[in-house]
Amino acid sequence: MSRPVVVVLATGGTIAGAAPSDVQAGYASARLDVEQLLRAVPEAQSLAELVGEQVASIGSQDMDDEVWLKLARRVNEAAADPAVAGLVIPHGTDTIEETGYFLNLVVKTGKPVVMTASMRPATALSADGPLNFYNAVAVAASPEAAGRGVLVVANDWIHGAQALIKTSTTAVQTFLSPLRGLVGEVSYGEAAFYNRPHARHTLASEFSIDGVTALPRVDVLYAHAGMPGDLVDAAVAAGARGIVVAGVGNGNMTRGALEALARAARQGVVCVRASRVTSGSVGRNVEVDDDRLGLVASEELNPAKSRVLLKLALQKGLDVPGIQRAFNEY
């Protein structure tokens, strides 16, 4: 039987990292290129015919709009090839949830798009990257993965890009999907699917990067006890077209910060209340009168993903009610 073709679009990250010792915590990201990654997991060739391409060579802490746009275009181009069954994107863990969510909103394919990563560099004793990559290829080659949006495979679990969050700085089991649960599991290349992501994605998404060369600036402000309103004023002065506040609790902040946020909203800056809490939704008009103040509630999205959606909503030209609808639907 012929093997399905899976395109591997490498971006760097810890999964391509190296350290001077196999028991050393410190390492450098993005030291292995895509061909070295493929050679390191020859078993994956039994699952699919792998075609590798190096899209970027960075630690994901350096991920930015330019790389997002480049990566999304390559996903769309590769997925449009009838010979391609699916795609795998090795990526750093620091911002994989943001990149995954961005792709979930702008790639236009029902074919499997599977991101993977590792918490330990390739040179580490008991590195987690090789099996994560092997399992990601298995999921990308599976017809059952189609139509589920962008997926993230790590530590035997299959997450939807909209749902997952990183919960530990160093633990291998860092990724969880606390609100919506797993899409499925994959063990040594054998995948089992349980759920389909609930939110709109990929082919059902209204967002597109066609003709887009840059995205609007959106800043994230971290709320804390005694948060001053001038942090909001500074973001406006710096040119932010949108502001996301990682609020305390249910998207709350000090009275001074809330007054500054409402003032920014009156000036045309779209302001979103999210939460710095690990999980849970930020409800509209619960403790804050969003209608009166002209604010948007993030619903299920954490601050990082709220920033992604807000950038695309601003690029599309949605008004505040339209942006709130987008947060409800995506």
What does this entry show, briefly?
This protein is an alpha/beta fold. The protein is 28% helix and 21% strand.
What are the SSEs and their pairings?
Blueprint: E1 5-12, H1 34-40, E2 49-58, H2 65-79, E3 84-90, H3 96-106, E4 113-116, H4 129-140, E5 150-154, E6 157-160, E7 165-166, E8 175-176, E9 184-187, E10 190-193, E11 218-222, H5 230-237, E12 242-247, H6 255-266, E13 270-275, H7 290-293, E14 296-297, H8 303-316, H9 320-329
Helix pairs in contact: 3-8, 5-6, 8-9
Explain what you see.
- With 330 residues, the chain is α/β, with parallel strands linked by helices.
- It contains 9 helices and 14 strands.
- It has helices at residues 34-40, 65-79, 96-106, 129-140, 230-237, 255-266, 290-293, 303-316, 320-329; strands at residues 5-12, 49-58, 84-90, 113-116, 150-154, 157-160, 165-166, 175-176, 184-187, 190-193, 218-222, 242-247, 270-275, 296-297.
- The strands form 3 sheets. An 8-stranded mixed β-sheet has the order 2-1-3-4-5-6-9-10, sandwiched between helices. The chain has a 4-stranded parallel β-sheet with strand order 11-12-13-14, with helices on both faces. Strands 7-8 form a two-stranded antiparallel ribbon.
- α5 runs parallel beside α6 (255-266).
- The relative contact order is 0.11.
